[in-house]
């Protein structure tokens, strides 16, 4: 039995199935897999069990409102599948690529995709910089991967003209975006914008940085 400290206050919250809609069975299944195996496999820390929904799954889901509903979406440094697996569940018309360099994590991601029946999601092993020009993605996502200047170097080359880099960020978003402005300009990106991404009442909004690739060089 989990101790009170391990109990997530959002477990059993009736608003979750309502928020996720048709994606709920897959998202709930993903949450169960993370709870049962995430800590054991080094994907989430022991303190994350009590905030899995708010800190990880809803945080990942928040980005969907700023993504295209279809096309190719590449999740760079997908790790445990956050946000890529959640995006794949919520956007069944999109082709979602989970890009991850570590073999043990790609094994996990393959297992998750199969277990959840996410036919629109595929796992690709490697680093973003190894795929420069290999994709013409409509969007690239990243969560807890790197600062914006590095993300721009790795992710903008994966985008088609008009595609967008959509990064989940925290309180340093504005500072990171300012430090990245020269890199963004050099790689054909616009100046970027900071967006609010709310989910359900009582859960902190997620901060998202979105950069559009204006030109392909």
As a percent range, the share of strand residues is 15-25%
Give the CATH H-level superfamily: Vaccinia Virus protein VP39
Shape: globular
**What is the strand tally?**
7
Q: Helix proportion of residues, in percent? A: 25-40%
Integer-rounded radius of gyration: 17 Å
Mean pLDDT metric: 92
Query: How many DSSP helices?
Result: 8
Secondary-structure element string: HHHEHEHEEHEHHEE
Structural class: alpha/beta
CATH architecture level-2 label: 3-Layer(aba) Sandwich
**CATH class annotation:** Alpha Beta
Q: Looking at CATH, which topology would you report? A: Rossmann fold
- Low-confidence parts, pLDDT < 50 over ≥5 residues? 1-5
Distance between the termini: 56 Å
**Numbering strands along the chain, what is their spatial order in the largest sheet?**
3-2-1-4-5-7-6
Describe this structure in words.
The protein is α/β, with parallel strands linked by helices. The protein has a single domain (12-212), classed as Rossmann fold. It has helices at 15-20, 24-38, 52-61, 84-90, 103-116, 148-155, 173-179, 181-186, and strands at residues 71-76, 94-100, 121-125, 137-143, 159-169, 193-197, 206-212. Helix 5 links the parallel strand 2 (94-100) and strand 3. Helix 2 runs antiparallel to helix 4. The chain is globular. Mean pLDDT is 92; it is low at 1-5.
